[in-house]
C-alpha cells in the first residue's frame, strides 16, 4: 500500500518550510493542507493539541508535530539522502546545533526584527549568530552538514532567507557580510541548493508579510 502523507501548514512559515525541504530532499510526494491560524481547524487541534501549531505531518493517519521532530522522523522513515549523520556523537552534535538555532538564534532574531533593529536587540542577536559563524569557520565546509545539507542547515532556513526579507521590508540591517562572512556565504549556498530553492516561498510574499506585520504606518 502506498504511503499517505499530508502536511498541514501555511505558505510563509519558516517552520513548515523546514519540513517541505526534508520531504523534497527525500523526494516524497504529499498533499499540502492549508491551515488558517486565526481559525484553527479541528484537525490541527486534534493532531497537535499541545501547541496547536503548524507544521503537522500526518503519515498513514499518524500525526507528528514540531518541525525538527518531523524532519528527524522523515529521515528515519524514508531512506535515500541522509539528513542526520549515523554516528551517535555526530548526530548529537547536529541535534545540539539545531536546538541552539531554535532556543537562542531565532528568539533573538524575532526580537531584533520586532524591535526594528533596536541596538540592544541586534547586539543580542549578533551574540547568538556569532556561535553559528564560528561553527561554520571551524567546519570549513559549504554547509553545516559538509558537502550536503543536514538538520542544522534546515533548522536555520529562517536565517538564510527570511531575515533578508525582513531587512528589505523594514529597511534594517541585521546580518552583514563584514561581521558574518561565513554565515552570508552559507546563506547564498543554502538558498541556491536545489531542494531548498524548489520550496522557498517567493521573497516578495515574505517582504509583504514583514511590512504588514512590523512596518511603521
Ligand atoms: N516550534 C514549532 C514552531 C511552529 C510555529 O511557531 N508555527 C507557527 C506558524 S509559523 C504557528 O503555527 N503559529 C500558530 C500559533 O502560535 O497559534 C516548530 O518548530 O514546529
Automatic annotation (TrEMBL):
Residues 87-214 form the GST C-terminal domain. It catalyses: RX + glutathione = an S-substituted glutathione + a halide anion + H(+). GO terms for cellular component: cytoplasm. Residues 115-142 form a coiled coil. Its EC number is 2.5.1.18. GO terms for molecular function: glutathione transferase activity. Residues 3-82 form the GST N-terminal domain. InterPro entries: Glutathione-S-Trfase_C-like, Glutathione-S-Trfase_C_sf, Glutathione_S-Trfase, Glutathione_S-Trfase_N, GST_C, GST_C_Tau, Omega/Tau-like, Thioredoxin-like_sf. Pfam families: GST_C, GST_N. Keywords: Coiled coil, Transferase. The keyword Ion transport does not apply. GO terms for biological process: glutathione metabolic process. SUPFAM superfamilies: GST C-terminal domain-like, Thioredoxin-like. Belongs to the GST superfamily. Tau family. This is glutathione transferase.
Amino acid at each position: 500500500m502506498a504511503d499517505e502523507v499530508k502536511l498541514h501548514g501555511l505558505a510563509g512559515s519558516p517552520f513548515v518550510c523546514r519540513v517541505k525541504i526534508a520531504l523534497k530532499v527525500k523526494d516524497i510526494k504529499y498533499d499540502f493542507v492549508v491551515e488558517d491560524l486565526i481559525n484553527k481547524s479541528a484537525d490541527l487541534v486534534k493532531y497537535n493539541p499541545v501547541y496547536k501549531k503548524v507544521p503537522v505531518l500526518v503519515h498513514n493517519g499518524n500525526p507528528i508535530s514540531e518541525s525538527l521532530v518531523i524532519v528527524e522522523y522523515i529521515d528515519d522513515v524514508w531512506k535515500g539522502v541522509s539528513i542526520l549523520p549515523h554516528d551517535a556523537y555526530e548526530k548529537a552534535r547536529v541535534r545540539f546545533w539545531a536546538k541552539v538555532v531554535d532556543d537562542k538564534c531565532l528568539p533573538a532574531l524575532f526580537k531584533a526584527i520586532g524591535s526594528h533593529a533596536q541596538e540592544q536587540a541586534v547586539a543580542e542577536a549578533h551574540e547568538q549568530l556569532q556561535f553559528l559563524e564560528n561553527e561554520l569557520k571551524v567546519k570549513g565546509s559549504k554547509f553545516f552538514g559538509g558537502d550536503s545539507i543536514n538538520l542544522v542547515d534546515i533548522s536555520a532556513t529562517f536565517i538564510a532567507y527570511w531575515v533578508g526579507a525582513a531587512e528589505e521590508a523594514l529597511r534594517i540591517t541585521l546580518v552583514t557580510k563584514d561581521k558574518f562572512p561565513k554565515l552570508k556565504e552559507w546563506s547564498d549556498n543554502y538558498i541556491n541548493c536545489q531542494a531548498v530553492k524548489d520550496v522557498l516561498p517567493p521573497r516578495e510574499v515574505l517582504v509583504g508579510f514583514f511590512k504588514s506585520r512590523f512596518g511603521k504606518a
